[in-house]
Amino acid sequence: QVQLVESGGGLVLSGGSLTLSCAVSGPISNDNLIAWFRQGRGKEREFAAGMWWSGSSTYYSDSVKGRFTISRIGGKNTVFLEMTTLYPEDTAVYYCALARRMFPFPRQPNQYDYWGRGTQVTVSS
To answer: Which of 20, 43, 57, 80 is deepest in the core (most CB within 10 A)?
Structure first.
């Protein structure tokens, strides 16, 4: 059974930085896809960043491109989301999720099979 646990959320000032972590356990292979989604209050859940478990390619939404970086150290089971130049609009619950191999890279929540419970990120102006 795959389990995902996010951590690292908190309060940060506008323009600041924060790094989130997702601890992954269970049967994972390089054919899996891992991603970060976020959901602001009153908004739909949206894709933020994703990568192949192997780390061969990364993908970003236009809203976070150039500011966020998804990564995983080879051989380790923790996925990171480095967030810089944060805006109040980035305030949301951030979730990590795991999907089966598919093309193009999945960007919709219903394409993912496993989810963490989320971690809150609040950016104040």
So the answer is: 20
